[in-house]
Amino acid sequence: MTDRPDLPLLVTGATGVLGREVLRHARATGRPVRALTRRTAPPADADTHWYTGDFTAGTGLDPAFTGADAVIHCASDPRHPKNDLPAFRHLLEAARRAGVRHVVNISIVGVDRIPLAYYRIKRQGEELLAASGLGWTNLRATQFPQLLDGMLRPLGRLPVLPMPSRTPVQPVDPAEVAARLVALALGDPVGHAPDLAGPETRPATDLAAAWLRARGSRRPVLPVHLPGRAGRLLREGALTSPGHADGTRTWDDYLAARH
């Protein structure tokens, strides 16, 4: 292994749900840690040096990348997914200029199956990474509880809560994904790493019912049949990875802590 313990780990998207957890685990390694955000960076502290850069424009990246050993890429823009591919290209260019040893990318279980725009873009990002000539590792994970919670909140205001019928979901805690990403970053590049999924697979309607109970709501869940190819693939479990149920924190654990 060519890892240099004196060189920094760089975390992109460092203020997001996953990025914050990656920072926490990176600091625990004792390695120098850098964090990159597109907004005004928090002040530097003893554990982390913050940088501001814009991946979409490709500006302000070199100071953060220069001298970094490994980059853990958590930055994404689900609201404007078309920005993710040019952003990823700029990241790879900055990593090449800086001679970064290892780029670790987080992706989503199902990007190679679900015909949704954001998933296609994530898949294209994986292809860019594999063709970059850099040392690389790609980790696909299942959905975070925070994502499901955020989706349920507006729906929970309706008289009934509509959810896809017969659709299995396998939430995984972002802290557990972060720990895996940091461990991968410290090792040699492996290409496509094994998936990381939550400890249990449950119907989406069941997760929604548990969410309502945790909030003290008596609203009913309305199972909705999703038509078309995407609906069929979701029902077939395209968002799950039962053979990699390595997470330990369940949806009910999340709800108990959150609500």
TrEMBL record:
SUPFAM superfamilies the UniProt entry points to: NAD(P)-binding Rossmann-fold domains (SSF51735)
PANTHER family assigned to the protein according to its UniProt record, in alphabetical order: PRESTALK A DIFFERENTIATION PROTEIN A (PTHR43162:SF1), PTHR43162
Every NAD(P)-binding domain range: 13-144
A Pfam family: NAD_binding_10
InterPro entries per UniProt: Ergot_Alk_Oxidoreductase, NAD(P)-bd_dom, NAD(P)-bd_dom_sf
Coiled-coil blocks: none
Source superkingdom: Bacteria
Name by which UniProt lists this protein: Uncharacterized protein YbjT (DUF2867 family)
